[in-house]
Write a structure and sequence with these properties.
alpha+beta; Beta Polymerase, domain 2; Methane Monooxygenase Hydroxylase, Chain G, domain 1; five-stranded mixed beta sheet; 8 helices; 5 strands; 12% strand
Length: 294
């Protein structure tokens, strides 16, 4: 039968890396965890939240994965009197960091373990924001030089990432805010400054996301302006060509009529007609130049 992991010996912290395993049912029966919260652990994704139940607290936290895309996994935590149950999906790379911090501090309190878990989860957000900041700066530098469809696609993909990032960060901020505003309970009052520090990190994360969204919106405006200017330049050139060709069309149409026309009997008629067309072209170009239209 599948059993839960115990990351720290002699500490009542149990970790389940497969929500569908029977180990979660065993822990639920042992610590009297509510069936609806066990269902939340198994039906992912859930929104980030914190709930207070008889004898324990239940949290849904968000673990960030950032490879080619931006994805969030649920990380569920039950904090009770003398026990801690965590539920993840597959590999959780931040757990060894938490184990190392606990070994250094020699602390077995479950509320401090929960603080370490939350701190590691939130700390993972900032490096991703740094990467997004670099990509935003790169877009700003290139949008004027290469306002093409791949650049537009890149802007919209990054904006979607930021929208999802803001939604998750805002919900995580509310979870931490609820922990700070609690009165008594299972969290020690000595941890309040530490939770406020995490809250400050999340507030800064949301502010930076808003800043990068504004910068991308500005880049999108620059892109649209550059495309519009390029279209105007093309239309301007085509208009000049069409206007220069207009006298030629009129002259050739006039001499193409089946009537008695000047220079029909003259051996130099073709030369005169060509000269008239050249003179009309030069006149149109001179007029455009005087008007500063090109």
């Amino acid at each position: 039968m599948t059993t839960a992991l115990q990351p720290i010996p002699n500490v009542a912290w149990f970790h389940v890396d497969d929500p569908a395993s029977a180990a979660l049912d065993e822990l639920a029966q042992r610590f009297h965890l509510h069936p609806l919260q066990i269902e939340d652990c198994r039906h992912r994704p859930q929104r980030a939240k914190g709930e207070e139940h008889d004898g324990y607290l239940f949290f849904v936290l968000k673990h960030l994965h950032y490879n080619n895309g931006l994805t969030f996994d649920d990380f569920d935590v039950f904090v009770g009197r003398g026990f801690l149950v965590t539920v993840g999906q597959g590999e959780t790379p931040f757990l060894p960091k938490v184990q190392e911090r606990l070994k250094q501090d020699q602390v077995g309190r479950v509320d401090r373990i929960f603080y370490y878990l939350l701190d590691e989860l939130v700390d993972a957000y900032m490096p991703v924001l740094d990467d997004i900041a670099e990509e935003t700066s790169d877009i700003e530098a290139q949008v004027l030089e290469t306002p093409d469809p791949p650049m537009l696609r890149r802007i919209f993909i990054l904006k979607r990432k930021l929208i999802e990032f803001r939604r998750i960060s805002s919900s995580m901020r509310e979870v931490v805010n609820g922990i700070i505003r609690r009165e008594g309970g299972l969290m020690g009052d000595d941890l309040d400054p530490y939770f406020r520090d995490i809250y400050d990190h999340l507030v800064r994360t949301v502010d930076l996301i808003e800043t990068y969204r504004d910068l991308l919106t500005g880049s999108l405006d620059i892109y649209l302006s550059a495309v519009a200017n390029r279209t105007n330049e093309v239309m301007k050139v085509l208009t000049v060509y069409g206007t220069v060709a207009l006298p030629l069309v009129v002259i050739t149409g006039f001499f193409g009529m089946n009537l008695k026309l000047p220079w029909m009997e003259s051996p130099y008629g073709a030369i005169y007609a060509c000269g008239l067309m050249v003179f009309s072209m030069i006149g149109v170009l001179y007029y455009f130049k005087r008007k500063h239209w090109f």
